[in-house]
Specification:
The chain is mainly α. The protein contains eight helices and three strands. Strands 1-3-2 form a three-stranded antiparallel β-sheet. It is globular, with a radius of gyration of 20 Å. The N and C termini lie close together (7 Å).
Length: 171
């Protein structure tokens, strides 16, 4: 195996990997949100992601919720079933395409959504306050670019298999 440059060695250290740091940061935010969501609303962080997408984008199809939350369809169905049972979300046939069901937040669900969003927005304000407006724009642009590259590289069918094969060839 060939020796690594200093840059490659630094990138090889897991703590310097962008993806690892993004995951750790997301986990910090998730853990913080859970301390508020579970006791007050009996809701998981994954469920909150569903509610925030429906609440901010509705009416929206379940398929679109799957795409925006990156959660499996069966989980979205179970979550929407729970929200519907609580009176937070309503299902309605799409007037343009009767085969499609659209999801909307009910007035009761809107109160829950607004309550949670106030806290989440404040947490967002507090966390991004470490960055100037110029830094926020740059950070956002870089994060979007990184996300697009991850999607292009890793979402294609067989992408992970090809990565494993590439690593095997380098050995």
């Amino acid at each position: 195996m060939k020796s690594l440059s200093q840059r490659e060695q630094a990138e090889d250290d897991y703590e310097n990997r962008v993806g690892f740091r993004v995951i750790l940061t997301a986990e910090l935010l998730t853990q913080g949100a859970k301390t508020f969501l579970r006791p007050k609303h009996r809701m998981s962080f994954a469920n909150w992601r569903v509610l925030v997408v429906i609440g901010s984008r509705g009416p929206i199809s379940a398929k679109e919720v799957v795409e925006r939350t990156r959660q499996p369809p069966d989980r979205i169905t179970r979550t929407v079933d729970q929200f519907q049972a609580r009176g937070w979300v309503a299902r309605r046939r799409d007037v343009e395409d009767g085969r499609r069901v659209m999801l909307t937040v009910t007035p009761k669900g809107k109160k829950i959504y607004d309550d949670i969003e106030q806290v989440v927005r404040e947490a967002h304000r507090q966390t991004v306050s470490a960055l100037s407006m110029s830094e926020r724009r740059v950070f956002d642009a870089l994060l979007r670019k990184y996300e697009q590259r991850c999607r292009a590289l890793l979402e294609a069918p067989g992408a992970w298999r090809r990565l494993v094969e590439r690593v095997k060839k380098k050995r």
